[in-house]
Amino acid sequence: MDTIAAIATGMTDSGIGIVRISGSGAVEVGDGIVKSPSGRRILKKAESHRFYYGFVVNPEDGVEIDEVLAVVMRGPRSFTGEDTVEIQCHGGVLVMRRILECALRCGARLAEPGEFTKRAFLNGRMDLSRAEAVMDVIGAQNDRALGYSLGQLRGRLSGKVRELRGRLLYETAFIESALDDPEHFDLDGYGEGLSGKLDGVIEELRRLIGTADNGRLIKEGIRTVILGKPNVGKSSLLNCLLGEERAIVTDVAGTTRDVLEESLRLGDICLNIVDTAGIRDTEDTVERIGVERALRYAREADFIVYVTDASMELDENDREIVSVIGDKRTIVLLNKSDLEAVATEEGIRALFSGAAGDGSGDCFPAGPSGDDGFVILRTSAKEGAGMEELERAVREMFFHGEIWSSNEIVITNMRHKEALEEACEALMLVKGSIEDGMTEDFYSIDLMNAYKALGRIIGEEVDDDLVEEIFSKFCMGK
Asked: Is 6 helix (H, G, I), strand (E, B) or coil?
């Protein structure tokens, strides 16, 4: 492969920066720009995986650019599987760019986003699921997401996929052998035995698929929408959770007219919060647009925080909000609990019961509040009261209070979920063929379809376009 180069660290001033060079000419390119303090070339005969001290020198005019440490990693014992040179320099943006320019002048080309990791995949250094985990580790928003991403990077998912594929391949090979040589392979009663074996595989596939919803929430964060009438304390709640005055708060109803989006960590849970305009009937054109946007965001949310003013009566606007919530997971906050209470928990329950009775929502999500299916908490965003209870309720609602082991395999990639679902469907077709008394050659067709679907997870059954699409989403230098 040709030689590529890129800045591998962030494009911001820092203590140390790294310029990475990889390919058949990487050592020659590095040798052309890194010199010893005495001016000698030092990398061409450098020992692999050993640091060398020197200076990067502009190959055109011999001007020194920076004092550096350089390491040669000869293939296949490198990240990409090919000769690689990494130059550790001072982390100024300008100096990193100048060193990269020197590498390009000596014959390297600028790497495309994700090209180093793509080469590692193409050179067999890692399978596709592990390559995708590289970006998951970089983009992890919490400790739980980081733990699962590291597990995938270490091959837990690919190991399970290879195990399941091996079991399917064995059965396929047995069927093909029996069909080719019926004298030495007996297929009497084989279908019944195969059906029992597939039950175990299907159970494992369904367990993996079942982790995907929580996996997405862990990886991407929970899409959270704060809903309520005007002036009930939605923006004050957001400011309280963020610990800063992010949203404008006034006594004037309708202050928030557009959505405001923020990300927030509650322990190891990431909430992607949208603060919305207050829901009410209004003749104000701008405010009405804000209300329509609020309702649209609510319909797309994973989680609703419905804020009410405990010092005010519930009304038709509250009824409209509850009808929009439907069966989404919801926490109801009786806010302004520092004032005299007017709205009650019984009133909230009656409101939700009325919405369900009207056909607005078939059911409400299970939660830690008992049979209601939603959680009611008393809070005061002004005083900061009830925030710890809110965090506990969110954790209980989404993860049922479980302490998950980082050794557990959790599906955080929707591409993987789709492949698992396709494999599961193919195996159910095999079981259907067995029940219908079909001949064994029908079994092998769907067994191979399941085998191929699982292969897409680790990159053994993917086309070039998909590979390009996956790695195009990577950051530059990785």
From this structure: strand
Other beta carbons less than 10 A from residue 234's beta carbon: 31
Name residue, tokens 């990475």: 20
* Residue 418 burial (10 A CB sphere; 0-12, 13-18, 19+): middle
- Which residues contact residue 96 at a Cβ distance below 8 angstroms, ignoring those fewer than 6 apart? 7, 9, 11, 17, 19, 89
Worst-scoring range by mean pLDDT, 97-106, 366-375, 467-476?
366-375
* Rounded Cα distance, 91 and 123, in Å: 30
Q: How many alpha carbons lie under 13 Å from residue 255 in its C-beta half-sphere?
A: 14
Looking at residue 51, its pLDDT comes to: 96
| Tokens matching residue 201 | 């595989």
The pLDDT of 115-121, averaged and rounded, is 95
Q: Residue 56: beta bridge partners?
A: 34, 66
CA-CA distances (angstroms) from residue 278 to 132, 139, 308, 321? Answer: 40, 33, 11, 10
Return the residue matching tokens 């180093």: 116
Q: What are the backbone angles phi and psi of residue 438, rounded to the nearest 5°? A: -70, 160
Phi and psi angles of residue 220, each rounded to the nearest 5 degrees, phi first: -95, -20
CB 108 within 8 A of CB 116: no
Would you call the peptide bond into 113 cis, given omega within 30 degrees of 0 as the criterion?
no
Using CB atoms within 10 Å of the CB of residue 274, give its burial: 0 to 12 exposed, 13 to 18 middle, 19+ buried.
Answer: buried
**CA–CA gap between residue 112 and residue 109 (Å, rounded):** 9
Q: Which residue has the tokens 């004050």?
A: 236
Residues ≥6 apart with Cβ < 8 Å to 159: none
Q: Which two tokens stand for residue 461?
A: 């059954």
Q: What is the DSSP string of 58-95?
A: -TTT--EEEEEEEEEE-TTSSSSSS-EEEEEEEE-HHH
Answer for the pair 77, 50: CB distance below 8 angstroms, yes or no: no
Q: What is the pTM of this model?
A: 0.76
**What span, in angstroms and rounded, lies between the C-alpha atoms of 348 and 390?**
17
437 sits in the region (left: phi over 0; alpha: psi -120 to 50; else beta) called left
Residue 362 confidence class, pLDDT cut points 50, 70, 90: very low
Helix, strand or coil, per DSSP, at residue 129: helix
CA–CA separation, 84 and 77 (whole Å): 9
CA-wise closest residue to 223 among 146, 333, 297: 297
